[in-house]
Amino acid sequence: YNLNENIDKQWYQRRVRGTPVTITLQPTLSIFLNITMLTIVTTVSLLFAVAHCGTYDTCNVDFYNKGWECNKENLCYYGCIKGYCWSQCNGASAISWDGPEGTCNTWYNLNENIEWCYLAGESSQYQTCSDDSDCEGVKMNSCAEGQACYVHTAW
Predict the structure, then answer these.
(1) What tens digit of pLDDT does each residue of 86-109 get?
(2) 119 contacts 129 by C-beta, under 8 angstroms
(3) Exposure string over 21-53, b if 16+ CB within 10 A, otherwise e
(4) What is the 3-state secondary structure (H, E, C) of 106-150?
(5) Of 23, 79, 122, 146, which has the maximum CB count within 10 A?
(6) In b/e form, how buried is each residue of 76-103, taking b as 16+ CB within 10 angstroms?
(7) pLDDT tens per residue, range 111-124
């Protein structure tokens, strides 16, 4: 018999008693691995998309247990700490945030901390407060002059 091998098309043709017989090969290990990898990448991508779906309507769920106030207008946590109003903001997290402009990243955290800054006051550099409710009127203000938005702790 005469064996003609064609690896690219993955088939063999041989002649038995002058009659051509085609034998189809089973998928090779590399094809199986490629299909498996494609399936895994697709699944992970879909899970990632579903996990972030609908996160544009509430503050970061990772911090619900902190007792902070959630500003529903811009999805930023805010409050009063050490006598000054503060708010969550987007620093480095802005790079990966695809939510509406002007809203805080609702899934980012770095070692269970958020990016935040002291808020600019109406008559002073920092808005003073004694309670979270004192910050209600300035919760949409920008960071105070000289205040960068980054992960830092004040608690």
Answers:
(1) 999 998 888 888 888 888 888 887
(2) no
(3) eeeeeeeeeeeeeeeeeeeeeeeeeeeeeeeee
(4) CCCCECCECEEEEEECCCCCECECCCHHHHHHHCCCCECCCCCCE
(5) 79
(6) bbbbbbeebbbbbbbbebeeeeebeeeb
(7) 778 899 999 987 66
Amino acid symbol at 96: S
Backbone torsions φ then ψ of 74, nearest 5 degrees: -125, 10
Cα 86 to Cα 54: distance, rounded to the nearest angstrom: 26
Instruction: Name the pTM for this structure.
Output: 0.62
- Beta carbons within 10 angstroms of residue 119's beta carbon: 25
